Amino acid sequence: MPDPVTHFIGGVPVALGPTFAACDPVTGREVRRVHEADRSVVDRAVAAARAALPGWAALPVAERAAWTRRLGDAIEERFEDLVAAEIADTGKSITQTRTLDIPRGAANFRAFAEIAAQRPESAFHLKDALSYTVRRPLGVVAVIVPWNLPFLLATWKLGPCLVAGNTVVAKPSEHTPGSLAVLAEIAASIGLPPGVLNVVNGFGTGSTGQFLVEHPGVDAVTFTGESRTGSAIMKAVADRVKPVSFELGGKNAGLVFADADLEAAVEGSVRSVFTNGGQVCLCTERLYVERPVFGEFVERLAEGARGLAFGRPQDESTVMMPMISAEHRDKVLSYYALAKDEGATIHAGGGTPRFGDERDGGYYVEPTVLTGLPNGSRVNREEIFGPVCHVAPFDSEAEAVGLANDSEYGLAATVWTSSLNRAHRVARSLEAGLVWVNTWYLRDLRTPFGGVRLSGIGREGGTHSLDFYSEPTTITIKLEAGHG
Ligand code: NAD
């Protein structure tokens, strides 16, 4: 990866614009610089995507699918470079990066190649006419992604977007330009037609992200990030009524019933609260536990939190990763302080770990378990996006469902129970886009993914993604009665 990190426009690296610092979250030290795209660089990227659009859109879907499959294969070939880039930007553990982040990137390109290539088209035979639909790409799509799962989330959009015939200008988070910079090199190395995939780097508001979504040459925006950023983007594209697909924040609930396998519920909750340092939109931040097992559950969860290994990213036994930035660490710590002010009991964590080495300059916080706050407290209502959850007791199924649904968000929920009836009953009462029973983050890429309320608009996954990235045209042909 070049230093400074460049943009990728029209199939070549472009080193334009001032540079800003990229820091290693493990130490807080500047590790390299990144070019920031101003309006003129964004213009150039959109123009390149526009120029590539007719040729790319005209390819048969099988050929575009062959290209995205090739991207998947080439990701495997550059696997370790991608792992290194992702770790350098995020401080993620090598085990997670090797088993989740980068493999899912390859899987995203391959899965959507298959889904698109096999997608049936519908035709209706009327009495004296034939009506059928063809799907056309949206055009030039802005793909804007956050820093928490940089490669996984970018490719989750790029796979279906490209295979549907769109060309792209992608913007990674200012904190995590590395893995998309490697993907750009991969695209160039396999000869992906220039301009089909462009990458610009920079910040959001008043910078590259805003210039991109406002650009008149951008036909649609697909965005994953904070709910308030989604709201700002929606306002920015309102005049042109651009289609938007939004995967936004969460304040996800987990319900633990007394009939659950407690061991599995504790282990699953340790994963669902603390994976990726709690920096996954699907992470659980509110746990509700049936009163007879509440005390034991809290104790065991706190024990689990205290046992999470804080090694260096390259150490295979490491679990905990730092927060992405000093600013985000301070935000998470401000919620720890707020919880104390609001009268919470802290069962684990609540502060910052001390290492006695250069990691003390990094952005680590302790995994934290809280109890004792009302559902209306800010800690229970606002997305913290760190390794922290609040646990509260409940006495009935109806109360548990009511507490879980009492949120402005609605992305994911988890239910722990051994009762089949309860599992179905509760799962369908939860107002969330995804509900897991006795598991967490188990995904099939064909299923719809997304949230309700502040958690987003639309669904990604399988044909749901392809639906967003293309528009149907219905064609109806009058058939004349036959002669003879
Ligand atoms: P963010 O909204 O601050 O930034 C996301 C991206 O948007 C970045 O690339 C940023 O530069 C850009 N951006 C910011 N302001 C912009 C603007 N005005 N116009 C255009 N682009 C702009 O989010 P973040 O802090 O990077 O990520 C964390 C958030 O993402 C959390 O809220 C988390 O829940 C959410 N998230 C949601 C999902 C999901 O699938 N629902 C997945 C991962 C993360």
From TrEMBL:
It holds the Pfam family Aldedh. SUPFAM superfamilies: ALDH-like. GO terms for molecular function: oxidoreductase activity, acting on the aldehyde or oxo group of donors, NAD or NADP as acceptor. The active site is at residue 247. Residues 19-475 form the Aldehyde dehydrogenase domain. InterPro entries: Ald_DH/histidinol_DH, Ald_DH_C, Ald_DH_CS_CYS, Ald_DH_CS_GLU, Ald_DH_N, Aldehyde_DH_dom, OHmuconic_semiald_DH. Gene3D superfamilies: Aldehyde Dehydrogenase, Chain A, domain 1, Aldehyde Dehydrogenase, Chain A, domain 2. Keywords: NAD, Oxidoreductase. Belongs to the aldehyde dehydrogenase family. NCBIfam families: OH_muco_semi_DH. PANTHER family: 2-AMINOMUCONIC SEMIALDEHYDE DEHYDROGENASE (PTHR43720:SF2). This is 5-carboxymethyl-2-hydroxymuconate semialdehyde dehydrogenase. It comes from Planobispora siamensis.
